[in-house]
Amino acid sequence: MGSDPIKILIVDDDEGVLIELERLLESEGYSTATAWSGREALALSDRSRFDLLLIDEYMGDFDSDTLLAALQASQPTAFRLLMHNDTRSKPGLKRKHAAVCKWEHAELKAGIRRYFAA
Length: 118
Prior knowledge:
Blueprint: E1 7-11, H1 15-27, E2 31-35, H2 38-47, E3 52-56, H3 64-74, E4 79-84, E5 99-101, H4 105-117
Parallel strand pairs: 1-2, 1-3, 3-4, 4-5
Helix pairs in contact: 2-3
């Protein structure tokens, strides 16, 4: 019997983004769960174990640093990847966390594959 698929929690307050990323990642063989808010993400995190937390940089109910810290407490072994809206890197912009553009699907998939290949 094969190993379990990698489980990814996708957190974004945009329904279109959630649906698009869920379809994209499931077509790559990942198992996904989606959350529309930080509160929903925390509730899911309390009930399930995830290998990757894919979190929108701008959530309405939590700032990303607070949400990442709370999720890290319940998912200490999960890789955390922040999603931003920029399609181009801005000179001088420094993020505290690993980040990918949620609109650049090739970049997003490559970022996930790099982490799990290590």
